[in-house]
Design a protein that fits this description.
Layout (H helix, E strand, L loop, with lengths): L7 H9 L10 E4 L4 E3 L13 E4 L2 H6 L3 E2 L12 H14 L7 H6 L4 H12 L3 H18 L4 H7 L5 H12 L11 E7 L6 E5 L4 E6 L5 H12 L2 E4 L3 H15 L15 H10 L8 E2 H7 L6 H9 L12 E2 L12 H15 L5
Parallel strand pairs: 2-4, 5-8, 9-10
Antiparallel strand pairs: 1-2, 1-3, 5-6, 6-7
Helix pairs in contact: 6-7, 12-13
Length: 354
């Protein structure tokens, strides 16, 4: 049992906040379920009386608790996914904070490790990520009608000229013109099939692609230019929803999605994508069937092309469209993923692949 940390009620206060600063320091045993978790576990926080705190996973295991499958407390807290999640939460808690290498070391994180992991995931260092979030926070502040000087100070810029220069370089507009500008938030979603890049505004999902997709960067840049928008790391209601829905999908809890997708295609493409969302999980259709269902029986190639240009994998389930002879045909994420997704849905719906 812990004796070097605060008492139970103080730890419980940290737990209620899902405080990332104690992640990897304490572990939470839940008496009612027999499961132990990390303090940042997204599951509902148990009552204080139903919790025992431990100083290591070994202590929790020795007490008879088993590891939570959602927050994976046995994972190395400095593993890339765990470390990035922890630092992202800290940045979101205080977007205006300027992070130093000493701040990271105080958390037990080597600056070089943080830099390497963020570079691989976001193509920017942790310090660049935190700076982008400060500017993104300033952008949203201005969009809400606050004064530019307030946004500047909230973002941690003492110099007005420095703020204007950094802001204009990032968003292509001076701060006083930001109310007419547009920005999307991006995030990385880990899945059993590999990481996916999600891009969204507050209400709509704009993109969900496997990061290994060919020419993904070109795809993102083309879409960004279409909307004349800046894409930055961030958080929105739409991103929170899609993360939850993706977790439920891969866990087999729900194969349906309620996420709203932003319209960005031609009338024909949108018609094909609307029809795609009507294909039930575990069911497959041919391109010919899709063409017939939208009233364009001779437009098989156009349907296949619209399928290829789908920018929201899994939600717009192009993996459920197969060849007329029943074979799996092109899938931007790779045919092995297409097969996995169909098998996954078939297991949870009892459907037979046709």
């Amino acid at each position: 049992m812990l004796n070097r940390l605060p008492d139970h009620e103080q730890l419980y206060t940290h737990l209620l906040r899902r405080d990332p600063e104690i992640d990897g320091v304490i572990y939470v045993g839940v008496k009612t379920t027999g499961i132990f978790c990390r303090p940042v576990c997204p599951a509902r926080t148990p009552l204080s009386k139903n919790i025992t705190f431990y100083g290591s996973p070994d202590e929790a295991l020795a007490a008879g608790f088993r590891a939570c499958k959602r927050c994976r407390p046995l994972d190395d807290p400095n593993a890339p996914g765990v470390l990035i999640d922890k630092l992202q939460r800290l940045v979101e808690e205080n977007p205006s904070r300027r992070w130093s290498e000493d701040d990271l070391r105080d958390l037990g994180v080597e600056p070089a490790t943080a830099r390497r992991h963020f570079q691989r995931r976001f193509d920017m260092s942790f310090s660049q990520y935190a700076r982008a979030r400060r500017l993104g926070h300033a952008f949203n502040t201005i969009r809400k009608g606050d004064a530019v000087i307030e946004a500047q100070l909230d973002a941690g810029f003492e110099s007005g000229s420095g703020f204007r220069e950094a802001f204009s370089k990032t968003f292509g507009e001076a701060p006083n013109k930001a109310r007419a500008a547009q920005t999307f938030a991006m995030d990385w979603i880990d899945t059993p099939l590999g990481p996916m890049l999600a891009i969204a505004d507050d209400a709509h999902l704009h993109m969900l692609e496997f990061v290994e997709r060919k020419k993904l960067e070109e795809h993102v840049n083309r879409y960004r230019k279409h909307f004349n928008a800046t894409v930055l790391p961030g958080e929105t209601r739409a991103l929170k929803l899609i993360r939850k829905e993706m977790a439920d999908y891969f866990a087999g809890k729900s194969l349906d999605f309620k996420s709203k997708i932003a319209g960005a295609g031609t009338d024909f493409q949108n018609q094909v994508w609307d029809e795609l969302r009507k294909v039930p999980p575990g069911v497959t259709r041919s391109y010919q069937e899709m063409a017939e269902r939208i009233g364009r029986p001779t437009a098989v190639r156009a349907v296949a092309n619209a399928n290829r240009l789908n920018r929201c994998a899994i939600i717009l389930p192009c993996h459920r469209v197969i060849g007329a002879d029943g074979t799996l045909t092109g899938y931007a994420g790779g045919l092995w993923r297409k097969q996995w997704l169909l098998d996954h849905e078939r297991r949870h719906t009892g459907q037979t692949l046709l």
